[in-house]
Amino acid sequence: MSKQMMTLKLHPKEATLARVCQRLNLSADEVDSEFGVVNIDPKRNLYTILVEEEAARRVSGAPEVEGPFSNPKIEPFGPPEKK
After folding, report:
1. Which residue range is the domain that position 26 belongs to?
2. How far apart, in whole angstroms, are the C-alpha atoms of residue 53 and residue 79?
3. In the chain, is it the N or the C terminus that has fewer CB atoms within a 10 Å radius of its CB?
4. What digits encode the pLDDT tens for the residues 35-75?
5. Is residue 49 part of a domain?
6. pLDDT at 43
7. Would you say residue 74 lies in a domain?
């Protein structure tokens, strides 16, 4: 199953994977622990996480949560540059 991005408004002290899982009632296997909780806008305290599709459906619409957003694979554009 593919993962989707969710944006969360969090107090910086709450921006840990354990706290996010607890707050959104997510199990550890529903959240991408390698991706973690990434601060995408420090001024607005916005963070993003990657979750399984079913988990994204469940938490969508929760207070301070936006998404889901797609997470397409990013690949190089054009041929590699020669050195």
Report:
1. 3-69
2. 33
3. C
4. 999 999 999 999 999 999 999 999 998 889 999 987 777 77
5. yes
6. 95
7. no
Closest CA to 19 of 47, 41, 57: 47
Omega before 76 within 30 of 0, i.e. cis: no
Question: Is-above-0.85 flag for pTM?
Answer: no
**Distance between CA 54 and CA 46 in Å, rounded?**
22
Task: Quote the number of domains for the chain.
Answer: 1
In a domain, 51, yes or no: yes
DSSP the chain: --EEEEEEE--GGG-SHHHHHHHHT--GGGB-TTT--EEEEGGGTEEEEEEEHHHHHHHTTSTTEEEEE--PPP---SSPPP-
